[in-house]
């Protein structure tokens, strides 16, 4: 039954409305029975479960949590990508485990930096994207302006699926092009409370009965322009990541939310075949396979328990099943896997491709590991991303070098940080994509490895993996030895002072590839 799974994430810039939309999607899916903030409910939930206690101890949530809900026979797995403050490689990696994404844009602000970054990661894997232009109940920019920005800035074909009749104070409703349904605000809150009328076309006089004269005229004029000016919806183009359907709405006032769920169910792809060392593995393959995209470790030094998050790629997983992790070579029995629901964690008895399973372990499972019933396959395409923050690690007690190396190796395997060993000089450099990872690093060095270290500025801005022939690499090294390092796998890395430096070196050394990602 893999066809009924939709595994997706929401990408957005902080404040665009991801939390609100998540809450409304879960409400529609029946996963939350009480209204209220997802964030607030999260607090209560934390107090209830041991798992969440761990997060509470850490005082931070680095978890991309997994929320599962069902509607009309479809199982939706929503993987949360932590927003601004929590931004880390977890966020990127989570996107390797989804089949589609919803991109939430604030109607007044358009595409913001974080949206763009996350979008680029989706593009890397041709993840299809549904656009949700949020907050139409507020004064925003003209709908055309936002759509054009998506098309131009992201080089995507766009297809408006519905249209707002005015925005902000003039907002009179949302018109759905496919169904001819007009959803309108009602009551003091001006929220969507079920007021819907259906119209045979935009020319139907019935529209004039429910809209103001100005609203009806405006809708007809704009809708005609919009339908003439943009692409028609094309399922193949969408699933290839070339076209994005655009839905206007208001998460807060519940406009466009049902339409969004319907769109995910109807258009977003079921689990896709996954690239592996043995060619693509189809979800319908009998043997169970999956990969770990995230590991959540305990801060408590007494209990080195970890939860590895596995995306199931093929086969039907059953509790107690033995799977072989690619890093280990011998099978492990998965006795207490966890399926994630919005309200609680539950022990899973079985899971299907597209589902996420949490696997408790003691550090045997690593990010990027493949788990399978067959022992000859490895999923590819789980990238490392070029760090955006680089720091030198300095030991306060120089006799702890060995412990530090062990700690850095462990933590980089876990995916908390990346570590680079410079060819020249003795201070190792660590790289992260978000500030939070640095805090996690320092506290874990202390708590788990008893290593007292601090971080200082490194003279580098970013790093690039070098790919090329031995002679090209040797030639590059003869000029740039002082700016070269090895990553934990021994792969050569160019430590760049600036993005400009990367461009400059690339021009001078056209036979080398300066890669911003590296597949694990
Ligand atoms: P996140 O940071 O992306 O998770 O954004 P939140 O969901 O926390 O929303 C940020 C702010 O925007 C909050 O104050 C929300 O109440 C508000 N907000 C979210 N959606 C809407 C909307 O559709 N209309 C309006 N007017 N405000 C919204």
TrEMBL record:
<feature type="binding site">
    <location>
        <begin position="12"/>
        <end position="19"/>
    </location>
    <ligand>
        <name>GTP</name>
    </ligand>
</feature>
<dbReference type="Pfam" id="PF22042">
    <property type="entry name" value="EF-G_D2"/>
</dbReference>
<dbReference type="Pfam" id="PF00009">
    <property type="entry name" value="GTP_EFTU"/>
</dbReference>
<dbReference type="GO" id="GO:0006449">
    <property type="term" value="P:regulation of translational termination"/>
</dbReference>
<dbReference type="InterPro" id="IPR000795">
    <property type="entry name" value="T_Tr_GTP-bd_dom"/>
</dbReference>
<feature type="binding site">
    <location>
        <begin position="80"/>
        <end position="84"/>
    </location>
    <ligand>
        <name>GTP</name>
    </ligand>
</feature>
<keyword id="KW-0547">Nucleotide-binding</keyword>
<dbReference type="InterPro" id="IPR031157">
    <property type="entry name" value="G_TR_CS"/>
</dbReference>
<keyword id="KW-0648">Protein biosynthesis</keyword>
<comment type="function">
    <text>Increases the formation of ribosomal termination complexes and stimulates activities of RF-1 and RF-2. It binds guanine nucleotides and has strong preference for UGA stop codons. It may interact directly with the ribosome. The stimulation of RF-1 and RF-2 is significantly reduced by GTP and GDP, but not by GMP.</text>
</comment>
<dbReference type="GO" id="GO:0016149">
    <property type="term" value="F:translation release factor activity, codon specific"/>
</dbReference>
<dbReference type="InterPro" id="IPR038467">
    <property type="entry name" value="RF3_dom_3_sf"/>
</dbReference>
<dbReference type="InterPro" id="IPR041732">
    <property type="entry name" value="RF3_GTP-bd"/>
</dbReference>
<protein>
    <recommendedName>
        <fullName>Peptide chain release factor 3</fullName>
    </recommendedName>
</protein>
<dbReference type="InterPro" id="IPR035647">
    <property type="entry name" value="EFG_III/V"/>
</dbReference>
<dbReference type="InterPro" id="IPR027417">
    <property type="entry name" value="P-loop_NTPase"/>
</dbReference>
<dbReference type="InterPro" id="IPR032090">
    <property type="entry name" value="RF3_C"/>
</dbReference>
<dbReference type="InterPro" id="IPR009000">
    <property type="entry name" value="Transl_B-barrel_sf"/>
</dbReference>
<dbReference type="InterPro" id="IPR005225">
    <property type="entry name" value="Small_GTP-bd"/>
</dbReference>
<dbReference type="GO" id="GO:0097216">
    <property type="term" value="F:guanosine tetraphosphate binding"/>
</dbReference>
<dbReference type="GO" id="GO:0005525">
    <property type="term" value="F:GTP binding"/>
</dbReference>
<dbReference type="InterPro" id="IPR004548">
    <property type="entry name" value="PrfC"/>
</dbReference>
<dbReference type="Pfam" id="PF16658">
    <property type="entry name" value="RF3_C"/>
</dbReference>
<dbReference type="InterPro" id="IPR053905">
    <property type="entry name" value="EF-G-like_DII"/>
</dbReference>
<dbReference type="GO" id="GO:0016150">
    <property type="term" value="F:translation release factor activity, codon nonspecific"/>
</dbReference>
<keyword id="KW-0963">Cytoplasm</keyword>
<keyword id="KW-0342">GTP-binding</keyword>
<comment type="similarity">
    <text>Belongs to the TRAFAC class translation factor GTPase superfamily. Classic translation factor GTPase family. PrfC subfamily.</text>
</comment>
<dbReference type="GO" id="GO:0005829">
    <property type="term" value="C:cytosol"/>
</dbReference>
<feature type="domain" description="Tr-type G">
    <location>
        <begin position="3"/>
        <end position="272"/>
    </location>
</feature>
<dbReference type="GO" id="GO:0003924">
    <property type="term" value="F:GTPase activity"/>
</dbReference>
<feature type="binding site">
    <location>
        <begin position="134"/>
        <end position="137"/>
    </location>
    <ligand>
        <name>GTP</name>
    </ligand>
</feature>
């Amino acid at each position: 039954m893999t066809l009924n799974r939709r595994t997706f994430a929401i990408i957005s810039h902080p404040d665009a409305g991801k939390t609100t939309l998540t809450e409304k999607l879960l409400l529609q899916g029946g996963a939350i029975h009480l209204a209220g903030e997802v964030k607030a409910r999260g607090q209560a939930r934390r107090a209830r479960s041991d798992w969440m206690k761990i997060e509470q101890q850490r005082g931070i949530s680095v978890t991309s949590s997994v929320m599962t809900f069902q509607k009309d026979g479809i199982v939706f797995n929503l993987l949360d990508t932590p927003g601004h403050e929590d931004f880390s490689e977890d966020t990127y990696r989570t996107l390797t485990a989804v089949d589609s994404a919803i991109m939430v844009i604030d109607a007044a602000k358009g595409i913001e930096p974080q949206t763009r970054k996350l979008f680029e990661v989706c593009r890397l894997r041709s993840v299809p994207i549904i656009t949700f232009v949020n907050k139409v109940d507020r004064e925003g920019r003209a709908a055309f302006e936002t759509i054009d920005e998506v098309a131009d800035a992201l080089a995507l074909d766009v297809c408006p699926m519905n249209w707002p009749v005015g925005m902000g104070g003039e907002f009179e409703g949302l018109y759905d092009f496919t169904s001819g349904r007009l959803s309108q605000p009602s009551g003091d809150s001006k929220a969507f409370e079920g007021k819907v009328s259906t119209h045979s076309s935009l020319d139907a006089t019935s529209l004039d009965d429910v809209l103001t004269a100005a609203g009806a005229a405006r809708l007809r004029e704009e809708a005609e322009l919009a339908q003439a000016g943009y692409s028609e919806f094309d399922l193949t183009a969408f699933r290839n990541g070339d076209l994005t359907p655009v839905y206007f709405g208001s998460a807060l006032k519940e406009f466009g939310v049902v339409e969004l769920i319907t769109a995910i169910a109807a258009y977003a792809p079921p689990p896709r075949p996954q690239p592996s060392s043995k060619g693509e593995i189809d979800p319908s393959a009998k043997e169970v396979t999956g990969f770990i995209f995230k590991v959540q470790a305990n801060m408590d030094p007494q209990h080195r328990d970890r939860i590895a998050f596995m995306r199931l790629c093929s086969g039907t997983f059953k509790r107690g099943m033995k799977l072989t992790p690619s890093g280990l070579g011998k099978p492990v029995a998965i006795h207490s896997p966890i399926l994630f629901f919005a309200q609680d964690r539950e022990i899973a008895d079985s899971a299907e491709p597209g589902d996420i399973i949490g696997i408790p372990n003691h550090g045997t499972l690593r990010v990027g590991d493949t788990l399978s019933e067959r022992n000859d396959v490895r999923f590819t395409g789980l990238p490392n991303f070029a760090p955006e923050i680089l720091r030198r690690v300095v030991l306060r007690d120089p006799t702890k070098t060995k412990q530090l190396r062990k700690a850095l190796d462990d933590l980089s395997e876990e995916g908390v940080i990346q570590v680079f060993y410079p060819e020249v000089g003795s201070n190792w450099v660590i790289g992260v994509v978000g500030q939070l990872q640095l805090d996690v690093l320092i506290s874990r060095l202390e708590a788990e490895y008893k290593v007292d270290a601090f971080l200082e500025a490194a003279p580098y801005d970013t790093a690039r993996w070098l790919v090329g022939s031995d002679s090209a690499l040797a030639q590059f090294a003869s000029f740039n030895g002082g700016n070269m390092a090895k990553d934990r796998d021994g792969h050569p890395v160019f430590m760049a002072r600036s993005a400009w430096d990367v461009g400059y070196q690339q021009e001078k050394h056209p036979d080398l590839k300066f890669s911003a990602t590296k597949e694990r």
